[in-house]
Design goal:
single chain; alpha/beta; Rossmann fold; Arc Repressor Mutant, subunit A; 2 domains; 9-stranded mixed β-sheet; 9 strands; Sig_transdc_resp-reg_C-effctor
């Protein structure tokens, strides 16, 4: 579970904490420095997520200068299932168990379903949180989609978890490359049973922290992607409007998962807010989507053909090619094709 990056080894260390009622909560620590407690989204698996390249790279980017602490909620990943039903109260008890392993205040980040949980914690325990980051979150889960849509998704998970995970992956990560989407769908199914997945998604829809927002006194960053298909950007606006002094950053993109699509701007916004230097990508390192586009360029595909193959519009394909060209310092598509072909086998 290690990976060499910039001559440094980022290693994940696993541990276990217990809530007051004895529920075991598995957590993972990576990096060094002030703790950044990360409240995961809907489903998680500490070990499998560390093996998913795109997700791991996102976490590694957060570990530079921080001690990243993640955990699996009950019934997910390495944390065993319990008979107790999912609830906001139970979520906060599990977060408290993990926080109890730390000394002093910490930075807190919540993504997706973890965002309202993080809000509730910051409102109830203001002295424990230095800075609060909310990504892809919401104030009222009831506002995420129409009741009929929610019931359809919950029923699909319950009756056909395989198909349900595929559908949700298309919603959560439309900007990810094909390989990452396929891995993510499998990953969701391996994180939990269908019953647990349904219960936790139902909780996501039920969470409502609107009353807690005015009680958050922690410096807060709300960051969201403009075209997020799982959580409308209006929810980010509601979070930032409800928290006094909160900073709102809206980034381009459609993916709900933080590591899907273009993650550099997201990481940079988070690191700047936490007072950390912004790490820069190597000049010749492309995002997963850009590598996919570069491969198609090397195969001689036009922008229209690239758009058709990737399920995006032609203007987006043109934009990807242009950003690749600028990042690599090339003047033409032919140079991009030659660069890719020299580094990969193109069949």
């Amino acid at each position: 579970m290690t990976r060499v990056r910039d001559t440094r080894v980022v290693q994940q260390r696993l541990g276990s904490a217990r809530t007051a009622d004895g529920t075991a909560v598995s957590y993972a620590v990576a990096g060094t420095g002030r703790p950044l407690v990360y409240v995961m989204g809907w489903l998680s698996h500490l070990e499998l997520s560390w093996e998913l390249a795109a997700e791991r790279r996102f976490y590694e980017a957060l570990t530079q200068g921080r001690r990243l602490v993640r955990y699996d909620r009950a019934g997910c990943g390495l944390s065993p299932a319990v008979a107790r039903p999912a609830s906001l109260e139970f979520e906060l008890e599990q977060l408290a168990a993990v926080a109890g392993t730390l000394d002093g205040p910490f930075d807190l980040m919540g993504t997706s379903m973890g965002a309202p949980v993080a809000v509730a914690w910051a409102a109830e325990h203001p002295d424990t949180v230095r800075r609060l980051v909310l990504y892809g979150g919401w104030a009222r889960g009831d506002d995420l989609s129409a009741p009929a849509v929610r019931e359809h998704v919950l029923g699909l998970i319950e009756s056909h978890w395989g198909l349900g995970s595929d559908v949700l992956t298309d919603i959560f990560a439309p900007d990810a490359d094909r390989a990452t989407r396929a891995q993510t769908a499998r990953y969701q199914r391996e994180c939990s049973t269908a019953a647990t997945a349904r219960e936790l998604l139902a909780l996501s829809y039920a969470l409502d922290v609107t009353d807690a927002l005015p009680r958050v006194r922690t410096p807060t960053l709300v960051v969201h992607r403009a075209g997020d298909r799982a959580a409308p950007v209006a929810q980010a606006e509601a979070l930032s409007a409800g928290i006094d002094g909160a900073e709102l950053v809206v980034l381009p993109g459609r993916s709900h998962l933080p590591y899907a699509g273009e993650r550099d701007e997201l990481v940079a916004a988070i690191r700047r807010f936490l007072g950390l230097p912004v790490t820069r990508r190597r000049p010749d390192e492309l995002t997963p989507r850009q590598r996919e586009v570069a491969e198609l360029v090397s195969r001689g595909c036009t922008n229209r053909e690239i758009a058709t193959r990737l399920g995006i519009d032609e203007r987006s394909a043109e934009g990807h090619v242009e950003r690749i060209r600028l990042r690599l310092g090339f003047r033409s598509r032919a140079q991009v094709a030659a660069w890719f072909s020299a580094r990969h086998e193109v069949g």
